[in-house]
Amino acid sequence: MLNISYLRSARAEAVDRMLRRRADAEALIDALLKADELRRQAQNRFDEAKARLNEQSQRIGSLLREGKKAEAETLKNEVAHLKSAVQEAEARFQEAESHLQELLATTPNLPHPQVKAGRDASDNEIIFSWGQPPDDTGEFLPHWDLARKFQLIDFEAGVKVTGAGFPVYMRQGARLQRALINFFLDEAIQAGYTEYQPPHLVNADSGFGTGQLPDKDGQMYHVTADDLYLIPTAEVPLTNLYRDVILKAEDLPLKLTAYTPCFRREAGSYGKDVRGLNRLHQFDKVEIVQITHPETSYAALEEMLAHVGGLLQKLGLPYRILRLCGGDLGFASAMTYDFETYSTAQKRWLEVSSTSNFETFQAIRMKLRFKDASGKTQPPHTLNGSALALPRIVASLLEFYQEKEVIRLPSVLHPYFGDEAIRL
RNA sequence: GGAGAGAUGCCGGAGUGGUCGAACGGGCCUGACUCGAAAUCAGGUGUUCGCGCAAGCGAACCGGGGGUUCGAAUCCCUCUCUCUCCGCCA
Predict the structure, then answer these.
(1) What's the CA A58/C1' B62 distance, rounded, in angstroms?
(2) CA A366 – C1' B31 distance (Å)?
(3) Residue A88 Rama label (left phi>0; alpha psi -120 to 50; beta)
(4) Which nucleotide has its C1' atom closest to residue A79's CA?
(5) How many CA within 13 A on the CB side of residue A302?
(6) Assigned fold of A121-423
(7) What is the residue extent of each domain of chain A?
């Protein structure tokens, strides 16, 4: 959620930032400012009406204490009209307040000034790449064929048991999943992240806190009987651990990590995008989250990029980093970097991590604050990143390391996998 | 799932209609004493919003929401959560 007083004091800057993601930035910001103006007016009237009533109520109290019953009764009658004025002022205030809150809840974050304006993914900038994608003119089987050949994943069984997008991993395929999860978690712990195992279902307040609700309502699986949501990412339960918390400055930065399955409805997807492991309704991911002092959040973002890049380098997978343009940015993000590995057989890049700085957007939504050096409370910055999402890593690994009879795994995985290769 | 009890500030714990943002104790901070510390003494110690250059003033918050009343932490309704007992259960 945007800080409304920031918008008041720096309207031009806010419009300039918002323009990077929304052509109607000016109207959007001005609607917020207008709603804020109305709300403050309404609050003033309400406060004043309430103060008048409170004053008289206290007088009635002291009259009664002095035993002046008759005078108190007279005053009671006189106060009646004050009460209706209060009720009216309160109703107006509530209306103005909820209008403002609704606008704030549905307004996306301001992109960082460094973020390029743009419409969609085609405007993203490639800022870094590592490794050499192999000559993909040779004979390469796509991962879904490799999965069948080596009996790693049974897509049809998943369709039967649940539905499309819920693959069944088996044998060496299941073991590879476990190896990757453990590898990613161990790396995160080594980098100073504290491991958590959070719930896989969250309530609506948590969904709101990180910005999935109301923006992505409909993208999450909703358990209506209990009004709970299956998490689309561990970011949600992890960051919401600190919802409604006032931290001390010395608590920062907080670094959290968790492995969880992730559930996404992804309505409207089709075609080659959803073939094999490309896009699933359930997948596994290790997530890293940081809560930092506002002044150090972009350094923390760099640190997270280095961590994610390090994982891909250890796996030996060529990758590139994109800085998302404004139009491709998620609702809550101020700046996002996507990591993509190359699919040798599909001849295209696959997104395997998305690493973002939300600045104060989530902290304000979830009332997360810290006391700074001067004793004032203010929202910290929150960040998160996939480190990493498994399915497309598995797809890249299988395709990149495939040979005729064997898929030779990178050496970092050997101790986790218990073998050097996936074998027929 | 059934029965009962409860939810108050950083913690413990009072408060059952008015002077309660909240007694008392502990913690923490500041000052005094001390070479220093402990003990002791004095003072302070929440969050949010609005107005104001500021000092300050006003409003709201005693689990959430709603109601009664001139006035609610206190009364009523409702929801959630916690605890105890019973049942069920990986």
Answers:
(1) 20
(2) 39
(3) alpha
(4) B70
(5) 4
(6) BirA Bifunctional Protein; domain 2 (3.30.930)
(7) 4-106, 121-423
pLDDT tens track for A23-64: 999 999 999 999 999 999 999 999 999 999 999 999 998 888
Distance A93 CA to B56 C1' (A): 25
What residue type is A182 in one-letter code? N
Tell me the nt nearest to A49, Cα to C1': B59
- Residue A58 CB in 7 A reach of strand B: yes
Determine the distance between A224 (CA) and B82 (C1') in angstroms. Answer: 24
Distance A74 CA to B44 C1' (A): 42
Q: Which two tokens stand for residue A222?
A: 């909703």
**The one-letter amino acid at A157:** A
The answer to whether A369 CB is within 7 Å of strand B is: yes
> What is the Cα–Cα distance from A268 to A167, expressed in whole angstroms?
19
pTM above the 0.80 mark? yes
CATH architecture of A4-106: Orthogonal Bundle (1.10)
Over residues A340-360, the pLDDT tens digits come to: 999 989 989 999 999 999 999
Closest amino acid to nucleotide B60 (CA–C1'): A47
CA Rg, chain A, in Å? 27
Query: What ipTM does this complex have?
Result: 0.87
State whether the beta carbon of A40 lies below 7 angstroms from any atom of strand B: yes
CA torsion, ordered A226, A228, A229, A231, to nearest 10 deg: -130
Distance from CA of residue A199 to its chain's centroid?
A: 16
